[in-house]
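Ops channel
N.P.: pipeline sanity check, posting one input/output pair.
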């Protein structure tokens, strides 16, 4: 393991320590490693030549506004080729959190997520994207038959 030292002014250090406490990190090193991994993943995704990805979109909306749910469901049905599954969670009597899992071409997934998050009535939307690499593999499945097909694996 390599070590390095960084200098922070008092205010930034105090704010960082508050973040560490809020997020439950054991120490500054773990928090810094997470921040570095996040930035590397973001840079890799932007520079990636990957065509495919998996993604999760999380968003909150007002359950009482029935038109929001209709718009969300309609958009998901229009893009059934991307949507793998969705999870609906009741936060309280009014607000719902939904998570939608997608798999498909990166450009289509990003367009879908931007459209969904921009829908009137959708709040607190964000997306997490994992780029996938394509690889052809031959191996046995159930019944011992060998099949050659494409696996999409996370790029690490």
């Amino acid at each position: 393991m390599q070590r390095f030292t960084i200098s922070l002014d008092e205010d930034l250090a105090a704010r960082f320590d508050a973040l560490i406490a809020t997020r439950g990190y054991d120490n500054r090193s773990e928090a810094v490693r997470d921040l570095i991994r996040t930035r590397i993943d973001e840079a890799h995704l932007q520079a990636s030549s990957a065509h495919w990805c998996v993604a999760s979109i999380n968003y909150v909306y007002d359950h009482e506004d029935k038109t929001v749910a209709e718009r969300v469901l309609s958009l998901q049905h229009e893009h059934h080729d991307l949507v793998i599954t969705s999870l609906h969670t009741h936060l309280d009597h009014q607000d719902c959190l939904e998570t939608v899992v997608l798999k498909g071409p990166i450009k289509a997934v990003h367009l879908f997520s931007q459209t969904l998050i921009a829908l009137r009535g959708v709040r607190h939307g964000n997306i997490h994207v994992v780029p996938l690499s394509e690889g052809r593999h031959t191996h046995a499945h159930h019944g011992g038959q060998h099949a050659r097909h494409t696996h999409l694996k996370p790029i690490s």
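N.P.: looks fine end to end. The beta strands are 52-62, 83-90, 95-105, 122-140, 146-154.
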